[in-house]
Write a structure and sequence with these properties.
heterodimer; A: 112 residues; mainly beta; six-stranded mixed sheet; 54% strand; B: 114 residues; four-stranded antiparallel sheet
Chain lengths: 112, 114
């Protein structure tokens, strides 16, 4: 099935550093979502973006909905050990039904 | 407010068997979607139910079927299990298929097919 392209695939960073990851698609989406998944658990919604160009923050997280509607990025500032996990972007096309297409994931490791 | 719950948490089946997975949606949510997540990959959309009707389906064969009940809880049934069906099965609910599309996930059911 289709998956969005996420980069980087994985990253190791020092605690306190900022992190940036992005997601691109060949298709246009109406909504972009960012999720974090811990091992053995379901994805947890971090940020939802509903309009092209929208920039939204949630604590240390900031995400933007690209103006072309084909991309999005997520920034994490001042990383802490509990930020470890896999981050997924997801694009959603509404109209009829909501099919969410997930990215390939970015695995984040934080070194204390 | 109770979140999305799924049962069972883990399941082991053999090839050819049938399995039923269950999901209780978050209170006030009338839309349920099911996803299959293979190890190391992102979730793949299986289908979505809105007010007890299937209203969208991903690229999965007919042996993957589902139901949604009047209380908006849902079941995923998989017949004739294959080894490749081993995965984490995720259920997600959303307030409305038409209004707020944001999906909230349950913890998943880990299925192993031997």
């Amino acid at each position: 099935g289709q998956q969005l392209n996420q980069s980087p695939q994985s990253m190791f960073i020092q605690e306190g550093e900022d992190v940036s990851m992005n997601c691109t698609s060949s298709s246009i989406f109406n909504t972009w979502l960012w999720y974090k998944q811990d091992p053995g658990e379901g994805p947890v919604l971090l940020i939802a973006l509903y309009k092209a160009g929208e920039l939204t923050s949630n604590g240390r997280l900031t995400a933007q909905f690209g103006i072309t509607r084909k991309d999005s990025f997520l920034n994490i500032s001042a990383s802490i050990p509990s930020d470890v996990g896999i981050y997924f972007c997801a694009g959603l096309k509404t109209g009829g039904y909501q099919k969410v297409t997930f990215g390939t994931g970015t695995k984040l490791q934080v070194i204390p | 407010e109770t979140g999305v719950t799924q049962s069972p948490t883990h399941l082991i089946k053999t090839r050819g068997q049938q399995v039923t997975l269950r999901c209780s949606s978050q209170s006030g949510h009338n839309t349920v979607s099911w996803y299959q997540q293979a190890l190391g990959q992102g979730p793949q959309f299986i289908f979505q139910y809105y007010r007890e009707e299937e209203n969208g389906r991903g690229n999965f064969p007919p042996r993957f079927s589902g139901l949604q009940f009047p209380n908006y809880s849902s079941e995923l049934n998989v017949n004739a299990l294959e080894l490749d069906d081993s995965a984490l099965y995720l259920c997600a609910s959303s307030p409305s298929a038409l209004a707020d599309p944001t999906q909230y996930f349950g913890p998943g059911t880990r299925l192993l097919v031997l």
